[in-house]
Design goal:
Elements lengths: L6 E4 L4 H12 L4 E5 L13 E4 L5 H8 L4 E4 L7 H15 L2 E6 L7 H14 L4 H11 L6 E5 L1 E2 L7 H5 L2 E2 L8 E4 L1 H13 L6 E5 L4 E2 L1 H12 L4 E2 L5 H9 L2 H17 L5 H11 L6 H14 L1
Parallel strand pairs: 1-2, 1-4, 2-3, 4-5, 5-6, 6-10, 7-9, 8-12
Antiparallel strand pairs: 9-11
Helix pairs in contact: 1-7, 2-3, 3-5, 8-12
């Protein structure tokens, strides 16, 4: 069965939301977006329903949810992220609308494992305690939620594309490797969950096929561009690059995240990879495929 009602995407101006909108449109779904600035979604086709509003104002959110069967949510980098998420959850619960969420959430085979993971995560990344709380709010809602616990996005590279094309891969990724997932795979799974009423509720890890070091990533870019790209995340100089490319809470969140990834990495779990493969019905896209696709687009443009 495929859902015929409109699907609402909150966060359509961000990288995750844009990918989900694209995946939904590819499936010929009726898509509605909630945005504060319609100019930021001007490139979307006219078939996409635009609702101008803000999660801080309940009336606008409730109007955007009218007639919707399911809604996608990704938490913004915002000091009020818990309040915004709570408002969204309450509105969806009141309307009987399924939530599909992609973001920070820790899965595990039993409660003790999840508790240990949450404790370790909170100690390593205190700035992300709010995001953990947001994930819990979504997972514990009464909306038959689907929670996608995602790893590091390959598309983060696009923030630093100018640096990469200039010959330096600046993201500090540990020598042990960091699992990286293609946002297109996240979006494909999210779109299926939004459009299939019988998609089982629950929390699912969504990962890429392998963990990569910063040196690995630089090598892939060097091969695709056919010119040297060196790894520049081995010293604290990477923070200066981040400060040039980002600002506000997102800058602070990313710096705190990558300090941890630089030191500890993020291993690829066999169970998580099997889960992701099952959800996609295929292996997740490789980093080599992502880099090749971006490089092809650059050369074509």
């Amino acid at each position: 069965m495929t859902r015929r009602e409109p699907v609402l995407v909150v966060g359509a101006t961000g990288s995750v939301g844009r990918a989900v909108v694209k995946a939904l449109l590819a499936r010929r779904a009726t898509v509605r977006v909630l945005v504060r600035d319609p100019a930021k979604v001007a490139e979307l086709p006219s078939s996409v329903q635009r609702h101008i509003g803000d999660l801080r104002f309940v009336d606008g959110l409730q109007e955007a949810l009218l007639g919707v069967g399911a809604a996608f949510y990704v938490s913004p980098h915002d000091p009020e992220e818990i309040r915004l998420a709570s408002t969204f959850v309450r509105a969806c619960e009141a309307g009987g609308i399924r939530i599909v969420f992609a973001g920070v959430h820790l899965t595990g085979r039993h409660d003790l494992m999840r508790l240990l993971k949450r404790t370790a995560f909170s100690l390593a990344l205190p700035r992300y305690r709010g995001k953990l709380r947001v994930g819990e709010l979504m997972a514990n809602s009464t909306t038959r939620p689907v929670v996608l616990a995602v790893s590091n996005f390959m598309q983060n590279d696009e923030v630093f594309l100018e640096d990469i094309l200039g010959g330096v891969f600046p993201e500090p990724l540990a020598a042990a490797g960091v699992n990286r997932v293609d946002l297109r795979d996240v979006a494909d799974i999210a779109a299926d969950a939004l459009l299939r009423p019988r998609f089982p509720a629950g929390a699912y890890p969504v990962v890429g096929p392998a963990s990569l070091s910063g040196v690995d990533c630089a090598r892939h870019w060097s091969q695709a561009l056919d010119r040297p790209v060196r790894y520049g995340g081995h010293d604290r100089g990477w923070e200066a690059v981040y400060r040039r490319r980002l600002s506000g809470p997102k800058l602070d969140d990313w710096i705190s995240t990558f300090r941890v990834l630089r030191r500890h990495g993020l291993a690829t779990s066999d169970d998580a990879l099997a889960c992701t493969t099952g959800l996609l019905g295929r292996m997740p896209r490789s980093y080599a495929t992502y880099v090749r696709d971006i490089t092809t687009a650059i050369m074509a443009g």
